[in-house]
Amino acid sequence: MRIDHFYEYWPIIDRPDIEWPGGKRLAVYIGLNIEHYESGKPSVGILEKSPGRDPDPLNEGWRDYGNRVGVWRIMELFDRFGIRPSVLLNSDVCKYYPRIIEEGNRRNWSWVAHGRNNSMFAGNKPPQLKLDEERNYLHDVLSTIQLATGKACKGWLGPMGLSETYDTVDLLADEGVTYVLDWINDDQPYPLKTFHGEIISVPYSLEINDLPLFLQRGLSGPEFGQMIMDQFDVLHRDSSGIARVMAIGIHPFIVGQPHRFKYFEQAMAHIARQKDVWFTTSDEIAAWYMLNYYHTHVQKLREVEILQGF
Q1: Residue 126's pLDDT is what?
Q2: How are beta strands 179-180 and 155-156 bridged, if at all?
Q3: Could you tell me the pTM of the whole model?
Q4: CB–CB of 25/276 below 8 Å?
Q5: CB burial class (10 A; 0-12, 13-18, 19+) of residue 263?
């Protein structure tokens, strides 16, 4: 088991400069969470007083709107703007909602593993999976998605609130995963520590993410759209000095609702008008970083460790 930290403290102002393809400075990607929730288990809901009901048609129906209706509204928008999302995919979606997989494959969407479903994982609260159980769990999730999509996942986002164990990163590296989105602490990719293998963190966001903003903070649709544009404008300005990544996390049962979707659409139009931005996927961000900067940054981090006395 890991006993030290997953990464070194490395201020963004101290790092060698990076650039995205074509000399662009800001990379933007959409993290489209497509999820399955097991019936009869307490899960995220729109009405707190009703979780615990079994069955719970109110909250289950609200969540299922995303896979029945909301995702298709979002898909049409992405088609219009030529956006390929990074689909943060529960492997159970392959079984229960195969039409989403079919249409996503037709559009060459990027598939990122997001656990089996959003009703369980191996996090640090009981019941926690043992090492071999987690290894089998991760292998099953990744192989199920590969079989359904025809593509091996290179990225991972922990289900149920970005959950991990102390072994998850190393087990994912063993499976050939090259990046995780769980560590939401940076505007750039950076190397993670592993006992073996190579794996990095790619930026993700719970600040620019419809689920916590609407359910926990009570934001309105216009406020969410404005937050996306404000985030973009500041990162766009900052990236002229230091290259950045902007992640936008969405869920079809949240932003796919018509009264919210209108403002998400406006924010996408605002970003799409900027021609000096790399509108991409988390897979492509990770691949570019690994090819061009990973080994240089690992060497620099070793120098940091020596200077800090580790």
Answers
A1: 62
A2: parallel
A3: 0.94
A4: yes
A5: buried
